[in-house]
Design goal:
Layout: E1 3-8, E2 11-16, H1 26-40, E3 47-52, H2 75-83, E4 89-93, E5 96-98, H3 100-107, E6 110-113, E7 118-120, H4 134-153, E8 157-158, H5 159-165, E9 170-171, H6 176-187, H7 208-220, H8 225-238, H9 241-256, H10 259-273, E10 291-294, H11 298-309, E11 314-317, H12 321-340, H13 346-354, E12 356-359, E13 370-373, H14 379-392, E14 398-401, H15 408-411, E15 421-426, E16 435-440, H16 446-459, E17 462-465, H17 474-490, H18 495-505, H19 511-518, H20 521-532, H21 541-547, E18 560-561, E19 570-571, H22 573-579, H23 591-611, H24 618-629, H25 638-654, H26 660-667
Parallel strand pairs: 2-3, 3-4, 4-6, 5-7, 6-9, 10-11, 10-13, 11-12, 13-14, 14-15, 16-17
Antiparallel strand pairs: 1-2, 7-8, 15-16, 18-19
The structure holds 3-hydroxybutanoyl-coenzyme A and 1,4-dihydronicotinamide adenine dinucleotide.
Length: 668
């Protein structure tokens, strides 16, 4: 039963049980609707506690109903019915009261919550605004400033903060149901407050709206919902309740059918599916309680920080004592930064550092559960490391490589018990970037693969399984993207135009400025390595720049010039001169067409990756680009974008028919 009613004296307890997260499906809305009617008609009942079974209070509208026609009873009507019920309702909150869940709670006369509860309006993260009074009732409880912050950021507030700002009335320590019933009994002994709809919102301070509009637009980076949510809160504070409700509903319905909302829903479900692949449903992960990282450079230090942040102890192995000290200093610098930015206290940072043992002695690895190798990207160095690991680690210890481009099978060659070997490809900075590519070999045991996913969950990473090919999923698409960007430059499109086009599309940086930041030399050396092995690697424009000493910002110039100490890219006459012979001007393209071309090329590579079985799902490729490469979330990822464009759109974007793999994916 989705909604059940129990009685404790004169207090009714309405319990919602709609697993997994008590989302407001049509059946649940109907159940609550009927409960209001039944309890209004019950003369023995004086107040109603609304509580949820399972892990959480109502987590929101049922997102899977969003693509379908709305069904009665509509949520705004249900909230109004609770609000105008003859008996006061009290929301008893545990877990999360989000979106429609918070809106139902706002319809109640009181809200109480356990200390661990969180309350929020995450609708903007789905490309919509609250649709059942969230932007209208919230400011009537907490004022314009707090309501605007909640509705535009989508970030929930914890119970203590909710109490401080007036969103809830009491925190219940101990049993929630008993506490809420006691609260209800006490509340009946005093005059009832007005329902939220009848209260006046505290006005915003002078200049607030203009300042907020600028700040929200900047933070939204192209997403439209946050500004629309701000508009709704503004209306709610400056106009009357009924008009504000109508405005919010109209905005909600308008956005619900938008491309951005469709894209964000796609990402929502992709993100929830990714950490728990159905193929591993019955596979038990190996426990990981102790870890080690080999190499304390850029990646090793970042990975160690990620492990420490999840509470795991880390042994950090380096080549010699000086390198150990440098590795620990790299890690220390990460934590100093976190303290400076206020993310960690000094004590927390010290605690994280205290959990790291730096050493050159591989004997320290005899009993660890997981080792992640992040030494130089050289096959000989890596194989030597794995030879040691093979000798010294437990046969069931998981041994992972963080290689970017080397073939993991070659790294693991000769390793005893190769079933424990796996690729765990982190992205820089490894303690910040959410993406984790998990790369099994044919020998990797299912439990080891499942352990990779379990590790990702405990580190708060977004895991995506990738097969073995040059660059796995993400870097392979990156390579194609860069080549396509260079092709446009060869057609006479200015470097700065390409970058501006991609920024306009929603990326934080264009392909050339991003290379200048990261350095052109890494990809160059990799191409040179392949050439030395006799592979046919065509000359890139980037090769010409690196040969001329232009490796990016670190050498004072790459695709652009940089004034000393300044990160602002300045179009370079030197580069124009170096590349002049390579450029054959074509018809030119506007920025939208440039971005469309590059994204279509990414999707074409993605489709090939999928067809080859390197990626398991098209949505996994979208997650890789969103969480590893700054692809705008509200665009849904390159694959989602391409599928929406369709064959005709892509033919226009590419200037030719899409490759068969992409065409087949679209027609599927
Ligand atoms: N609708 C439908 N399904 C939902 C859902 C929702 N609102 N929220 C979560 N689910 C599903 C997930 O897809 C997942 O399904 P699966 O088990 O089949 O894969 C399952 O519930 C569990 O979700 P999580 O893995 O995310 O569970 P957690 O325990 O880690 O997190 C949570 C719980 C914090 C509630 C998290 O699920 C969450 O943040 N959900 C989204 C909440 C949200 O965005 N609500 C607003 C909806 S929009 C709205 O309410 C509009 C209104 O104003 C009209
Ligand atoms: P780095 O050069 O910053 O660090 C490598 C570290 O390994 C150095 O500190 C070095 O002293 C140490 N080392 C070398 N040989 C060792 C040995 N035998 N035993 C112990 N330590 C040893 O390199 P970076 O950038 O951290 O890369 C490491 C690995 O991570 C490479 O495989 C790279 O391809 C991969 N990677 C790099 C990314 C990046 O953005 N830099 C992203 C993802 C993966």
């Amino acid at each position: 039963m989705t909604v059940s009613i129990a009685r404790e004296g004169t207090i009714a307890v309405v319990t919602i049980d709609n697993p997994p997260v008590n989302a407001l499906s049509q059946a649940l809305r109907q159940g609550l609707w009927d409960a209001v009617g039944a309890l209004d008609a019950d003369p023995d009942i004086r107040a109603v506690v609304l509580i949820c079974a399972g892990r959480t209070f109502i987590a929101g509208a049922d997102v899977s109903e969003f693509g379908k026609p709305p069904m009665e009873p509509h949520l705004p009507d249900l909230v109004a019915r609770i609000e105008t019920a003859a008996k006061p309702w009290i929301a008893a909150i545990h877990g999360s009261a989000l979106g429609g869940g918070l809106e139902v709670a706002l319809g109640c006369r009181f809200r109480v919550a356990v200390p661990s509860a969180a309350l929020g309006l995450p609708e903007v993260t789905l490309g919509i605004v609250p649709g059942a009074g969230g932007t209208v009732r919230t400011p009537r409880l907490v004022g314009a400033v707090e309501a605007a912050a909640m509705a535009t950021s989508g970030k929930p507030v914890k119970a203590a903060r909710a109490l401080a700002i007036g969103l809830i009335d009491q925190i219940i320590d101990g049993d929630l149901r008993a506490g809420a019933v006691a609260f209800a009994e006490a509340a009946l002994n005093a005059p009832l407050p007005a329902p939220v709809c009848a209260r006046d919102p505290a006005p915003a301070p002078e200049g607030f709206w203009a300042a907020q509009e600028a700040a929200v637009a900047k933070a939204a980076k192209g997403a439209v919902a946050p500004l629309r949510a701000l508009d709704c809160v503004k209306r709610a504070v400056t106009g009357d309740f009924t008009a504000a409700m109508a405005f919010e509903r109209e905005t909600f319905l308008d956005l619900r059918g938008s491309d951005q909302a469709a894209a964000l829903r796609h990402v929502f479900f992709a993100e929830r599916a990714a950490p728990r692949p159905s193929t591993l449903k019955d596979v038990t992960a190996r426990p990981i309680a102790t870890t080690a990282v080999i190499g304390g450079g850029t990646m090793g230090a970042g990975i160690a920080a990620a492990l420490r942040d999840a509470g795991l102890p880390v042994v950090l192995i380096e080549r010699d004592d000086t390198a150990v000290a440098r590795g620990l200093a790299n890690l220390g610098a990460i934590y100093d930064g976190a303290v400076k930015r206020g993310r960690l206290s000094e004590a927390q940072a010290a605690d994280r550092m205290a959990g790291v043992t730096g050493t050159t002695d591989y004997a320290a690895l005899a009993d660890v559960d997981l080792v992640i190798e992040a030494v130089f990207e050289e096959i000989g160095v890596k194989r030597a490391v794995f030879a040691e690991l093979g000798r010294l680690c437990r046969p069931d210890a998981i041994l992972a490589t963080n290689t970017s481009y080397l073939d993991p099978r070659a790294i693991a060659e000769g390793l005893p018990h190769p079933d424990r070997f796996i690729g765990l490809h982190f992205f820089s900075p490894a303690n910040v970037m959410k993406l984790l590519e998990i790369v099994p070999t044919a020998d990797t045991a299912p439990q080891v693969l499942a352990s990779g996913f379990a590790l990702a969950r405990s580190l708060g990473k977004m895991p995506v399984q990738a097969g073995i090919c040059d660059g796995f999923i993400g870097n392979r698409i990156l390579k194609r993207y860069r080549a396509a960007a260079e092709a446009l430059v060869r057609e006479g499109i200015a470097i700065a135009e390409v970058d501006a086009a991609m920024r306009g599309f929603g990326l934080a940086m264009g392909p050339f400025e991003a290379q200048d930041l990261g350095g052109l030399d890494i990809a160059f050396l990799q191409r040179e390595g392949a050439r030395a092995r006799g592979e046919d690697v065509p000359e890139m424009l980037g090769d010409i720049l690196v040969r001329a000493g232009r490796k990016g910002q670190k050498t004072g110039g790459g695709w652009y010039d940089y004034a000393p100490g300044d990160r602002k890219p300045v179009p370079s006459d030197t580069v124009a001169g170096l590349l002049a012979a390579q450029i054959t001007p074509g018809a030119g393209m506007d920025r939208a067409a440039i971005a469309a071309r590059l994204v279509a090329e990414m999707a074409e590579e993605g489709a090939a990756i999928l067809a080859e079985g390197i990626a398991q799902k098209s949505s996994d490729i979208d997650l890789v680009k969103i969480h590893g490469y700054g692809f705008p979330r509200w665009r849904g990822g390159p694959m989602f974008h391409a599928i929406r464009r369709g064959i005709d759109g892509l033919t226009q974007d590419l200037g030719r028919a899409p490759a068969p793999a992409l065409a087949a994916l679209i027609q599927r």
